[in-house]
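Recap from last week: sequence in, structure out.
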Amino acid sequence: MCSAISFAGFYKRLCGRVVRKLIKQNIQAVWPELQGSTCLGIGYAGPYLNALKRRGAEQVVSLVFDKAALEGGNPDKPLVLGDPSHFPLPGKIINHALLIHDLEFIYHVKDHLSELHRVLVPEGQALIIVPTRLGLWSHAEWSPLGTGMPFSFRQVTQYLKLAGFDIISSREALYMPPVQEDSFFARALYAMAPFFERIGPWLFPFVGGVHMVLVCKSQYGGLKTSVKKPAKVRTGSLLPEVAS
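Predicted structure tokens:
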């Protein structure tokens, strides 16, 4: 699994900056308005938290599972360190959750999604972003998208439905091919990224780099699990303000 420091290094490079820009655009298209929301970023969501703030989120918290992220590895300073199967948050408190660089590194996916279900308010939504199995980015082992377990669309939606979520919509992103070196060729290729994003869904509908699946809590509820007491929060208050 990549460490928080590895993620931070990736997002400082040209390829990482382009990836962040393209994924941010898709997040903003999915959630154009978040006025007054309490939002939770799960995994390594720091590079994308500003996108939630700019859409009007009142409070944004990042939940990480790598201690290095709290020790300076993440420039966006996530505030809560937790366990993937035991979030340090009370139930029914989050309006919108963003999962990125998360699910592909989780061993107990069902428990993880059950905790997500628990902390969301009844009308809450979650946007799950995972590497696609058929995409080129899942084979780029030098990037965070190539170091976890990629998912087919069927796999990720089955996990979500079993955890008590209804699928609202889905899309794919990152149709540009991954290039590691910051060479002239790489710069020219990444400059064409918007072009790849426009033609990709039409010419190569199943080979985007990531699945983006928007879900809400099902009216039938989630998995039946034992009631857990929230884990102790390691840093600051429960939902502190994030400076961004």
